[in-house]
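Quick check before the chapter quiz. The format below is the same one you will see on the exam, so make sure you can read both the input and the output lines.
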Amino acid sequence: MWWDLLWKMVNFAVLVFLLYKVLKKPLGSYLKSRQESIKGALEEAERAKEEGERKYREYEERLKKLDQEIEKIRQDLIRDGKKEKERIITEAKIMAEKVKEQARLSAEQELKMAKLRLKEETAAMTVQVAEDMLKKHLKPIDHERLVDEYIERVRRLH
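Here is the expected output.
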């Protein structure tokens, strides 16, 4: 009796180990590629931010060289440059947050799906192993006894 339990535990451990070996690499590579795409999006947002800041500094330098006659234009350009910088930075931050949140949600969803698939596969394999073991070890007399017990339970239900 305890050998059967030990045998089932060993089979289950082997099954879990094999599933880990089989699913580790594809799942890991997919998550790594997803992480790299997110990093790329964040780097692109950072480049956009730096470009905005670079343009701002460029406008500021040009405006310092202008004389008194275009002071009003200079003030307008500085104000517009600051607004553009703030807008670009705000948009970059919003985009980065959206990308981060989307990546987090996607990773959570993918992890849930992977866990669900693993549970389903484990359950199916466990049922198959149990069925195979029953077929191997169930004798005709045991089969008759199980059928009689089932019939008796059904009768008690009515």
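If your answer matched, good. Helices lie at 2-65, 71-137, 140-157.
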